[in-house]
Write a structure and sequence with these properties.
Layout lengths: L2 H23 L13 H5 L11 H12 L21 H13 L10 H17 L14 E5 L2 H16 L13 E5 L6 H8 L6 E2 L2 E2 L4 E2 L1 H13 L3 E8 L11 H11 L2 E5 L24 E5 H4 L7 E5 L2 H8 L9 H5 L18 H36 L3 E7 L2 E6 L2 H12 L7 E5 L2 E7 L7 H15 L4
Parallel strand pairs: 2-3, 2-6, 6-7, 7-8
Antiparallel strand pairs: 1-9, 4-5, 8-9, 10-11, 11-13, 12-13
The structure holds pyridoxal-5'-phosphate.
Pyridoxal-5'-phosphate binds next to helix 6.
Length: 470
């Protein structure tokens, strides 16, 4: 590897990225790529080169072949799913992280990586007003960076099954009897985690009609009935900010049900959890003080590149009991001393990249005050879009919370037609979904480059697609 070539290429890459961000900000690129399936495959040779090529050529091909066929998630008119944000600070940190190339599976394999992660998870816990027991400083719990809310849910479910069965969750005696509860509004990663963990399908607790949120009384009834039938209720997964409508389960009341019965409560706050940075947006229903574990995706709304989810647990022993594994080749004095945190025992994989660096860069480069403004800005833009939807004849506002606006047309057929036409529209991306059995379109604000003008323009595009073809 030629270090000088790296310096030149890295400077070139930085320049190209800065120009790319500028082009996104001024809407010079489409949101959605033009090519049919196979476009990129066709442009790439079928075999790897035998001889090395210049980084400059590879970079050039990146912009020539790859970038035009990407969906631009940072584009102001990207309104799909939930945002997956980024920032120059996060990008720079990823470059530095990659260059340092450390692997922080245990404290001893990279002490600073582990201690930095402990510190930034504590910073964020305090900034989100999470209970002190979720901090490393408390000596009880702490935060750990996972790749995704999906992994956080899996880790939490496994720890809960382990606790509920006193470590015997894989044995015959418990097989098929452990139960995990959520609603049909939980993200698909929740039933997936329950399946992977070997606990079958989750029990779907009814929602309170018209709210899309868990009915705590129905949860209590179901748990008690299951217990009477010889089953073992192990965990409840509640959601703060559901994926379809951004609804929030009543966590304090769910937490009371769990606490009385010794059931683990995991709170999936992947998107909406970040809003708690702003004191005026903290909701009583979010109730992190009732949770055994709580997860927020920094890569959704905190300008930190994906992947970066933080999972906080109230009792770190639960995780290490369920996931710990220390074969002879990982033994070391620091671990034996019991004085260090080995994050390998807080996650599924053994190895781990130093993801804390990007969170550190982002929190320092922006500061909490600026990150709060980012969230408030996106919420203002969503309110603008919601007001445009409400004012438009032939449209209905189905839900509007934080940065999310959910809408439908007058009839289901019209919504389906609109969805079809929008799917062929390169300049805006919304996500279709189903609410109460009816088709809807979701629009989530979160691009760093969105403003009032881009929101009005995106809405004009949607309206144009809704107009009957002439
Ligand atoms: C986005 C989202 C997820 C999935 O997040 P990943 O990090 O992609 O696994 C889970 N739950 C909720 C509520 C979400 O909004």
């Amino acid at each position: 590897m030629n270090e000088r070539a790296f310096q030149t290429a890295a400077a070139d890459a930085a320049g190209r990225l800065a120009e790319h961000w500028r082009a996104l900000a001024s809407c010079e690129l489409p949101v959605v790529p033009p090519g049919p399936p196979g476009t990129t495959l066709k442009a790439l040779p079928e075999t790897a080169p035998e001889q090395g090529e210049d980084l400059a050529d590879i970079l050039e091909d990146t912009w020539h072949t790859i970038v035009p066929q990407l969906v631009h998630w940072q584009h102001p008119n990207f309104l799909g799913y939930y945002p997956t944000n980024n920032s120059p600070a996060s990008t720079l940190a990823e470059l530095v992280t990659a260059g340092l190339g450390v692997q922080g599976m245990m404290w001893s394999t990279s002490p600073a990586a582990t201690e930095l992660e402990m510190r930034v998870c504590d910073w964020l816990a305090r900034a989100l007003d999470l209970p002190p027991r979720f901090t490393h400083a408390s000596g009880q719990g702490g935060g750990v960076i996972q790749d995704s809310a999906s992994s956080a849910a899996l880790v939490a479910v496994v720890a809960a099954l382990h606790r509920a069965s006193r470590g015997r969750w894989r044995e015959h005696g418990t097989e098929g009897r452990l139960r995990v509860y959520c609603t049909d509004q939980a993200n698909s990663c929740v039933p997936k985690a329950v399946r992977i963990a070997g606990a079958g399908e989750p029990v779907l607790v009814p929602t309170v009609p018209g709210t899309h949120t868990m009915d705590p009384a129905a949860l209590a009834d179901r748990v008690d009935a299951d217990r009477a039938a010889g089953l073992v209720p192990a965990a409840v997964v509640a959601t703060v900010g559901t994926t379809v409508t951004c609804a929030t389960d009543p966590v304090p009341r769910i937490g009371a049900v769990c606490r009385e019965r010794g059931i683990w409560l995991h709170v999936d706050a992947a998107y909406a959890g970040s809003a708690a940075l702003c004191p005026e947006l903290r909701e009583d229903d979010a109730g992190p003080e009732f949770a055994d574990s709580y997860a927020v995706n920094a890569h959704k709304w905190l300008r930190t590149g994906t992947p970066c989810d933080i999972l906080w647990v109230a009792d770190r022993g639960d995780l290490a009991d369920a996931l710990g594994a220390t074969p002879s080749y990982l033994r070391n004095d620091a671990t034996d001393s019991g004085k260090v945190v080995d994050f390998k025992d807080w996650q599924v994989p053994l190895g781990r990249p130093m993801r804390a660096l990007k969170l550190w860069y982002v929190l320092r480069a922006h500061g909490l005050e600026e990150l709060r403004e980012v969230i408030r800005h996106d919420i203002r833009l969503a309110a603008l879009l919601a007001s445009l939807v409400e004012r438009e004849p032939g449209f209905h506002l189905v839900a509007h919370r934080l940065g999310l606006v959910v809408l439908r047309a007058e009839t289901d057929d019209r919504t389906r037609e609109l969805t079809q036409r929008l799917a062929g529209e390169p300049d805006v991306l919304c996500t279709p979904a189903i609410v109460d059995g009816r088709p809807v379109l979701r629009a989530a604000l979160g691009s760093p480059y969105a403003d009032e003008t881009t929101v009005r323009r995106a809405w004009d595009t949607v309206r144009a697609c809704a107009a009957p073809a002439s």
